[in-house]
Amino acid sequence: MPRLIIAVALAALLTGGAATTPPAAPSSGEADARAASRVAERLDRGLVAVPASGGVLVTWRLTGDDPAGISFRLYRGGTLIEETTKTNFLDSGGGASSTYEIRAVVDGTERPGEKASVWAAGRHDIPLDKPPGGTTRDGVAYTYSANDASAADLDGDGQYELVLKWAPSNATDSANSGTCTGPTVYDAYELTGRRLWRVNLGTNVRSGSHYDSFQVYDYDGDGRAEMAVRTSDGSKDSAGTVIGDANASHLADNCGVLSGPEFLSVFDGRTGRVLDSVPFEPARGRVSDWGDTWGNREGRLLSATAYVSGSRPSMIFSRGIYERVALAAYDWNGTDLTRRWKFDSHSSTNLGKGYDQQGNHNLAVADVDGDGKDEIIYGAMAVDDDGSGLWTTKLGHGDALHVGDLDPARPGLESFNVHEHKDAAYGYEMHDARTGRILWGARTGTDVGRGLCADLTRAHAGAECWSSGGGLYAANGTKISDSVPSFGGAASYNAAIWWDGDAHRELLDHRWSGTAGTGYGQILKYDGDSELTRIWSDTEARSNNWTKGNPVLAADLLGDWREEMIWRTADSTKLRLYTTPHPTDHRLQTLMHDPVYRLGVAWQNTGYNQPAQVSYYLGTK
Question: Which of 133, 45, 80, 225 is nearest to 602 (CA)?
Fold first, then answer.
């Protein structure tokens, strides 16, 4: 059965010294107020071992419901080599052929263990079964490349599986009419590479980052995740069952899809078979209601998962960012999909209140008002847990936002946003995530298309924030530098990762490879200078989504609290999974048992990918 999150919203932070115990959880009363009944995945220890400087680094999970006094015994080849309260150990006697077992000790009793062998190459390759390409109705051939992925426990065994999106080579932005696309395909894989199932959306759902975001989560609480995605006539599940009319085509002369039914479909995570389909909301209706007549604004769709009820997760789907904005929340009880609520900026309740034109190319989910229920932060606006408008800054559309405890000196959560409109009062700004009140920022008079927040240095409390609008800022708005973190002349503000042994975050980025639209993965370290230091790279680890340069997935999938990353190879015949080779003195619960972080991993594939944040301040001060 699923476990309960014990530390629902951590208010603690790491100091400059070693953190040898987990951050303190809230009091029992506070935990009750913050919906301690939220269910989280039941996870195993995620034991992993990789070559490291000085031996083999072995890491394992501390889960959200582990008792405070838990300790561990680590065995190599059946021999006890370490007793520790940490969640990692550098084994100077280990080698490529070593095998390890970790056993938890609770109240003096040793629990059954888990075993792992060493990743000899320092990574784990996951073989893929690439779908065959095809030809669109206008005679254009296409092939497939591995694209974004999501992680969840599909079969209830306590281990993560992956759901991978395959993008055809002619996938395109919704602004580009006149281009037919191949269908989007989803595969489910175990980390061994065994393919579990395949779902094909068909030609009536255009392929591109704005059309086919997907959610993978355990919505009915049975310990096994489902996949939810927008479908249409001709979409097929793993068994070949067709959703809607198998013979219908809704492609317009310019290859846009501006008519025809849309469905919200839920698929069984174990089998890939469709469980239920209902009419999709927010519905398309008249295309012109969204701001144009050719489908650019109508075709901007995002998705997320949120605990809007407090105790159970709901799936969130949206339409529109540039003009009209609408979101709908759905619940899945194992049998039926039911709509919980819908928000529409053009409804009689919201019209004229400043919610139009405020959407982003991404979104975030967090309990910003501390009532135990999640809100949807949708760019320059937020929707409350009951589907009503919470606030709007009226600063307009943007390409990036970050929500977390970015400034530990302030109560609650903050959001850092960048804005596209040249006449916006702020090109970048930080605001209170509960009220939308602007805390600091600057007018730029330019389209600020990138922005990132991550704790980079001990010199300033909280996360540092920077953008393509210029300048590096402390969390309280103090300007640190006129320059932004850069490597080799290229600014870095695509993503971030907790990778090495300290509590700071490193920058996760790509380096252009010379091939159009792709780059190779790299991790960059800030040492107080605007010029970053590269601490990891792999020229065979290829990025996704053009200039966004993101990996297939970055998340805390294995081992201790540091994050793993998955990249595709150039030919998309395999995924490469990397975990940190760096020891750490910090002992933290798995980030996947933090509510903001776990839901951030669920929405990471949506629109313009952004890194997941946590609900507490994780860094130094």
Answer: 225
- DSSP 3-state of 456: coil
B/e letters for 610-621, b = 16+ CB within 10 Å, e = fewer, are bbbbbbbbbbbb
Helix, strand, or coil here: 118?
strand
* 423-461 core/surface letters (b: 16 or more CB in 10 A; e: else): ebebbbbbbbbbebeebbbbebeebbbbbbbbbbeeebb
Exposure b/e, 242-256, CB count within 10 A at least 16 = b: ebbeeeeebbeeebb
Q: How far, rounded to the nearest angstrom, does the alpha carbon of residue 539 sit from its chain's CA centroid?
A: 24
Distance CA 271, CA 199 (A): 10
Q: Which residue has the tokens 């006129």?
A: 482
Chain CA centroid to CA 306, Å: 13
Beta carbons within 8 Å of 390's beta carbon, 6+ residues apart: 368, 369, 375, 381, 382, 383, 384, 436
| Alpha helix positions (H), 247-393 | none
Q: What is the pLDDT confidence band of residue 175, given thresholds at 50, 70 and 90?
A: confident
Query: What residue has token string 């994780």?
Result: 618
Residue pair 277/247 in contact by the 8 Å Cβ criterion = no
DSSP 406-451: --TTSSS-EEEEE---TT-S-SEEEEETTT--EEEEE--SS----E
Reply yes or no on whether the pLDDT at 15 is more than 60. no
- The dihedral formed by the CA atoms of 327, 205, 598 and 383, expressed in degrees to the nearest 10: -10
pTM equals 0.94
CA–CA gap between residue 461 and residue 480 (Å, rounded) = 12
pLDDT tens per residue across span 416-474: 999 998 899 999 999 999 999 999 999 999 999 999 999 999 999 999 999 999 999 99
Alpha-carbon span 219 to 310, nearest angstrom: 13
Is residue 352 exposed (0-12), middle (13-18) or buried (19+ Cβ within 10 Å)?
exposed
Q: Which tokens sit at 193?
A: 């590479």
Confidence of residue 109 (pLDDT cuts 50, 70, 90): very high
Is residue 366 a contact partner of residue 291, using CB atoms and an 8 Å limit? Answer: no
Give dist(CA 45, CA 590) in Å, integer: 10
Q: Which residues contact 46 (CB under 8 A, 6 or more apart)?
A: 60, 61, 159, 557, 558, 559, 590
The amino acid sitting at 87 is T
Residue 517, pLDDT score: 66
Alpha-carbon distance 543 to 246, whole Å? 34
Question: CB–CB of 214/229 below 8 Å?
Answer: yes
Instruction: Name the 3-class secondary structure at 584.
Output: coil
Q: How confident is the model at residue 1 (pLDDT cuts 50, 70, 90)?
A: very low
CA 168 distance to own-chain centroid: 22
CA triple 517-518-519, angle to 5 deg: 140
Q: Within 10 Å of residue 489's Cβ, how many Cβ atoms?
A: 6
Tell me how crowded residue 93 is: count the other CB atoms within 10 A of its CB.
10
d(CA 499, CA 561): 9
